[in-house]
Design a protein that fits this description.
Two copies of one chain form a homodimer.
Chain A lengths: L1 H17 L4 H24 L2 H8 L3 H5 L5 H18 L10 H15 L5 H12 L4 H27 L8 H19 L7 H15 L7
Helix pairs in contact in A: 1-5, 2-3, 2-5, 2-7, 5-8, 6-10, 7-8, 8-9
Amino acid sequence: MLDRAVSMNISVLLKAADTPETAQDCRRRHIMEAAERCFARSGFHKTSMQEICAEAAMSPGALYRYFKSKEAIIEAICLDERQRCHGTLEPLLVEGDFTEAFVDMAMAYFEQMRRPGATPMMLEVFAEGLRNGAVGRNFLENEAMVREHISDFVKRAADRGDIDATVDHDAAIGMMMALGEGIVMRSAIDPALEPERIRAMLAAMIDAVFGRGKRR
Amino acid sequence: MLDRAVSMNISVLLKAADTPETAQDCRRRHIMEAAERCFARSGFHKTSMQEICAEAAMSPGALYRYFKSKEAIIEAICLDERQRCHGTLEPLLVEGDFTEAFVDMAMAYFEQMRRPGATPMMLEVFAEGLRNGAVGRNFLENEAMVREHISDFVKRAADRGDIDATVDHDAAIGMMMALGEGIVMRSAIDPALEPERIRAMLAAMIDAVFGRGKRR
């Protein structure tokens, strides 16, 4: 039952991401990308709507037709991120090797976070998660949803006997999410974290954390 | 030769941290803590000197005697962080079990990052590392120095035959630093990452990444 719920949830989000883009969507995306560049330069709090207008090369009147406030732009970017993020959870739905599926998901997530502006945006949003605002709550909800999907995936693997059922699953999932977020952050400053250099290590770490047999 | 260089470097920093605090130091620290709370609330860019004065309950005249600018306060906080950070590298100097030393260092780092304001500050500083300013450069230098200390520690262990010499050490160190930074970030929002719940997992992950025998 959980499987189906997870699967439906993700496919709805994937479907939303696949819908063809209208001229209006395109314009919105143009503004969101301009805003992301501004946020990367000077953070959410300091960026003004005027700066976003300048970066998007649009008049305030034109821009306000799409977004009423900076907060509305941030919200739209976060929703977008959320859809992309859920897309990367797809490998968890395939019945197959636990570690392979986990690694595939992580790699899809890293790939998605390589687009310019994604990492600074993630840091901003994470910082907001530690504060008490709408953006922070949105982020924490998304984190909780991702964690739930991974948790279901882990439970199914434990039920099948694929992983050690006695392992502290919550802590193990927390460690893997910490590793994933840490890799995204560091990739921007650490050239050693190229996908092909870390793939096998990631698999070995997953095996270690979930009490699977040593693979090397 | 490397050992001695690392050892001296760290002991100089530890000595600096041990020096008894004067009344002036105490006042500076009071201002720095007030500034950290402001940065946690609204970020480096938006925080003004007036806000820091209000938070520290000091007049601008009094505060300016200690710090000429917001940038000078940030720099002082970063230097402080740097000294604390180097203190946590001490376990790497003890000749003993590779994984135990690594875990002890990580745990000391997590402990140090538990003080209020440390995680929001780390996110701000990391975001600055992706930008092109003085704070960012300072942060990147510190990262490079920590990496060098860990790298020396890994080289010595490889020379002794304690870890697999054929492992991609740079990628392995990058993975461990990513994990450490990710744990610090997530600890603020994920109660499963308590020290006692993750210690054994961390050890298993280090063993896996550095090609050491399975310990469970």
